[in-house]
Amino acid sequence: MLLGAVELARSAIVEFSGEETVGEYLGATLEDSTAATHRFLAIMPGYRGWQWAVVVAASPGADHATISEVVMVPGPTALLAPKWVPWQDRIRPGDLGPGDLLAPAVDDPRLVPGYLASGDPAVDEVAREVGFGRRQVLSPYGRSAAAQRWHDGEYGPNAPMARATKRVCRDCGFYVPLSGSLGLMFGVCANEYSADGHVVDAEYGCGAHSDTPQPPGSGSPLFDPYDDGVLELTELGDRGAD
Questions:
Q1: What's the fold here for domain 6-74?
Q2: Which of 3, 42, 97, 188 is deepest in the core (most CB within 10 A)?
Q3: Taking Cα atoms as reference points, which of 117, 223, 206 lies closest to residue 169?
Q4: What is the pLDDT of residue 89?
């Protein structure tokens, strides 16, 4: 009785949305002993691949089924919107633009209150000398996370540029170490022809290292200038037929 209620299900859709929105019958499935779902192709602008799902129900011993629910559901080929992601999880590095405001999370693990020791000697020493510190400073987790990103990033030791040379930034004249604990592994490149202004790993390297030797030779060989204006043109006389 439940599986045979095809026309009952179709009439429910027609009453709900109109006859022109109902397409071919797609079949039915039993939900349990008291309910079944009938599916029809939905014909509506913007809902290509969607289906009408009509749930019919009947209690044990009933002599007819009744309509329980009429809904539209996506079919296997339906175009669906991407899964919703909260805005704070959608932001990625590089998304911040001029005029944008981005506050840290309330319990951001990268930050700790400035009155607590941050664990970075350079920061803690300055705070003690002045008598107060910044409202928030990097936590050990924040420093560790930044160090890992920089180490694994474009200017780390495993970057293609670094793997193509044997020289490293640590002993380069253009390498400016960071202060504090991060200075043990990182610095800023001051070579305008390389990673200028970027934080680089001490084990990063490039072909513009300060110790890169000059190429052999002195360039193009030197020749005396050639001036064809001083040439004297003469005509060849007859030599006869010797």
A1: Nuclear Transport Factor 2; Chain: A, (3.10.450)
A2: 42
A3: 206
A4: 79
CA–CA distance, 155 with 152 (Å, rounded to integer): 8
Strand segments (E) across the chain: 22-32, 35-42, 50-57, 66-74, 111-113, 136-138, 175-177, 186-189, 199-201
Distances (CA, A) of 42 to 9, 22, 24, 140: 13, 5, 8, 56
- 116-124 long-range contacts, Cβ below 8 Å, gap at least 24? 119/143, 119/181, 120/180, 120/181, 120/182, 121/180, 121/181, 122/179, 122/180, 122/181, 123/180
Tell the burial category of 110 from Cβ atoms under 10 Å away from its Cβ (0-12, 13-18, 19+): middle
The enclosing H or E element of 132 equals none
Beta bridge partners of residue 73, listed in sequence order: 51
In the chain, % of residues over pLDDT 90: 49
Token pair 């890992």 is found at 148
Q: Where are the domains of the chain?
A: 6-74, 142-201
Strands 111-113 and 66-74: unpaired
- What pTM value is reported for the model? 0.52
Rounded Cα–Cα distance for residues 115 and 117 (Å): 7
Instruction: Give residues with Cβ within 8 angstroms of 158, minimum separation 6.
Output: 152
